[in-house]
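Section: Multi-chain targets

For targets with more than one molecule, the full set of components is provided together so that the structure can be written out for the assembly as a whole rather than chain by chain. Components appear in the order listed by the source. The example entry contains two components.
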Amino acid sequence: MQSELQKYNLFFKLYYKILTLLTHRNISYGFIKHCTVTTLLITFFFSHGTLYAQQVPLGNVKCIRPTQAKQQEPYGNDSLYSADPRLWTLSLGVGLGHGKVRDMGTAPILFGGPALYHTLGIGYERMRWRYQSEIATALGYYEDALAPKLNFTTFDISNRIVFYAMRRLNAQLLTQEWLGVGIRNYLDVTVNTNYENAAAGISDFVELALLLRGAQQLGSSRWLLQFQLAVSPLAAILRPGYSYIDNYTAAQPVLNVLFDDYQWNLSPIPSVSTEIGFRFTLLNGNEMEWLYCWDYHSSGNSGFWRFDHAMHTLQFNLLFALKGGKRL
Amino acid sequence: MKRFLNKALAVIILITCGGCEKLLMPADAESSATATFDYMWRQVDERYALFDVKAVDWQQMYDSLRPQVYDGMPGDSLFAVLRKLLNSLDDGHVNLWGNNDVAGSETIYLERYGLKNFDVNTIALTYLRPDHHTTGGLAYNTIADGQVLYIRYASFSNRVSTSQLASVLERYPETKGVVFDIRQNGGGEIQNEWNLMAMLPCDGQLLYSTQMKHGPEHDDFTPPSNVYAPENTSHTPFNKRFILLTDRGCYSAASSFALCLKSYTNVVVMGDTTAGGLSIPAGGALPNGWYYRFGVSRTIAPDGINYENGVPPDHVVFLDPAATASLRDNIIDSACHWILSNQ
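Its structure, encoded as tokens over all components, is:
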């Protein structure tokens, strides 16, 4: 694995050298690398479908999405999918947003500012069931929303790992409703260097989640309007307690006692997240999503232990229909 | 069912996407002068870890200072009241940062400069001398006819690694001991403390134990967490006499270093009691945007005592003004005598 990475790195370095020689400009190596990977990814996205596109006569139906194609089947013996219909999807997403955070352990003040968002997910669909897991990371740069002139800034790094199992409630062609359950882990690290040894606070939410998801095809087009609501009825939450120290002094004894003060508590309805947006299906089966997402986490309770984080993001996702299903 | 779900979803999505965290997230705390004072007092009351070694009646401080605070009072006046409140703790790890001012412990300040056991000119001219060497944060030269190595470490904020100390010690293999001077060292990064201790012989000795504040009552603490001497497998430990010089200017990491070194058999701590500051400070912001810090842990020595107000030396030696007048430091001279007479 290491040697492969080294090979890739050599390739990019060589590519970078050639490009800078050709252009006689000092181009950022990271920028070139990023552009190249993005270009390759998009090229792959548009050029590689899996199984469905070739099966849909363009003159017949404007588009049949993979899931819709399945919906058309009565799941009877004569269904093309009845033997073992499966579909793996890989999703990659980026987003820009605005976040707000307040950690009562360090300040009763709301911080707000821009945030970057990345997601990586994988889904598996079979018959009426869909299983989906996702890793999402957000990096926020927040300022004191009330007094930005004081130059308090907080970096907020949040990481969400989710796993959902969803059951489709109906098998209509144009409309779908899904109901699901899942588990989520939400890890948030806030860093504020103004706060001496309380510079970093770690919050971890281990949540049970309920999911409601709906989609509506817009006429007979390849566009789909979709929305999703996930509510966590209960979570176990780890938060700093009264000491709230971090590794500012980077010493062995501090690391030894770093989590001594952390406390687990159960909290009802600690999070709500929603998304609404559009999905466009390409002829090769891959899809693109434009979503508006809202995500809110709160440890509940009161006093120093309370933590609130809300984020609004505009996301763009690429959904790859992966091979592995039954080929038509 | 389908219609119901669609309508329910549409309503929920409209509400939640409309930024309804405002409905869920409580508003910012009131930032008035009285609210700010109350918040500061409560933070200290529930989270400060050292009430048992500080001679302060915190409730009495509230009762006496709270009447002086009123909403709409000038910021400077509020800062002065809060300064008085925090100053009653006599703790160098307690600070308040306002828009245009910083408050710290007046007692620690007075002790550092009023009870100074150190003369910088004497050190520079007689002991370090112009031909001294500097490695990392360490300045050093030989004294007592080359028999003793004198090392000056002025601040734990100056980075020093184990390898750097090892190279300094290896440079003078013929010396019979080291005088390690941390007087007027106000502390800094604890990691440097560990880097230095790694050059001393470790036999698994207990250095101290730490307890974190863990509840709102003054005696709510986590169970003690023991801290042992660091092992060093990459360098030969320094087994010769090691004299550590301290004074009332030694604070925080410097005090902690003195406490740790008392557990090493080849080390003698000499000079005056340190200024203390063994707790780990943590901070935060007040509702009006000012920010603060104070100690949230306590450190217990192997003998069961909390030396938060100062680590006493093994041998008390005060600077003699008559010696200083002739550019001599009688504390260093005593340390040299100790090394050379105990071989």
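Chain A is about 15% helix and 50% strand.
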